[in-house]
Amino acid sequence: MKSRDRFHLTLTVADRPVIHGWWGGEAAARLKFSRWIGAYGSLPKVRVTLTDEQERTVLTSWPDPH
Asked: How far apart are alpha carbons 37 and 39 in whole angstroms?
């Protein structure tokens, strides 16, 4: 991971990582987050998570765990 790649996006299916990527800008990462939901959201047991690696916090995940 390059230091400028702060935002980490992960797609898991049945708790197993399938796709991941890093982006330097939050806006670009959120756009990709939405696109992954559209492309992969119908898979069973899918989860898409966007994390700020610098702050070590989950910014959003889908589906919402609550």
From this structure: 6
Q: Which pLDDT score is estimated for 4?
A: 75
3-state secondary structure of 17: strand
Listed residue (47, 45, 40) closest to 63, CA to CA: 47
41 contacts 16 by C-beta, under 8 angstroms? no
Q: What is the pLDDT of residue 2?
A: 58
Half-sphere exposure of 50 (CA within 13 A, CB side): 22
Question: DSSP E strands: which ranges in the chain?
Answer: 7-13, 16-23, 46-52, 57-62
Question: Is residue 17 reached through a cis peptide bond, with omega within 30 degrees of 0 on the bond before it?
Answer: no
